[in-house]
Write a structure and sequence with these properties.
The chain is mainly alpha-helical and 86 residues long. The protein has one domain: Monooxygenase (Up-down Bundle). The protein has four helices and no strands. Helix 1 packs parallel to helix 4, helix 2 packs parallel to helix 4 and helix 3 runs antiparallel to helix 4. It starts with a helix and ends with a helix.
Length: 86
């Protein structure tokens, strides 16, 4: 990392997907996903999946880390949305 802007980008790229954790915890505790749109969850997830190859091949460390962490945590969200769908 060469400058402070890149450092902030890397930290933010890792931190942003971590905000899915409260949603994951809420889904597990309530064992329900009825208040979440299935179209929204799957639409966002498909877009993330389609963006991930570009993130992985990018030379931009912030984008690459964001792509990796984001697909992991949002895949967990989608798993619980589908698991607790009634």
């Amino acid at each position: 990392m060469t400058d402070w802007i890149e450092k902030i980008g890397v930290i933010s790229g890792i931190a942003l997907p971590l905000f899915n954790i409260p949603l994951i915890v809420k889904l597990i505790q309530r064992k329900s996903s009825k208040d979440l749109s299935l179209t929204w969850a799957l639409g966002v997830w498909v877009c993330i999946v389609l963006m991930t190859p570009q993130a992985l091949r990018s030379h931009d460390l912030a984008f690459r880390l964001f792509g990796i962490v984001n697909i992991i945590f949002f895949s967990i969200v989608v798993f619980f949305v589908l698991k607790y769908r009634k």
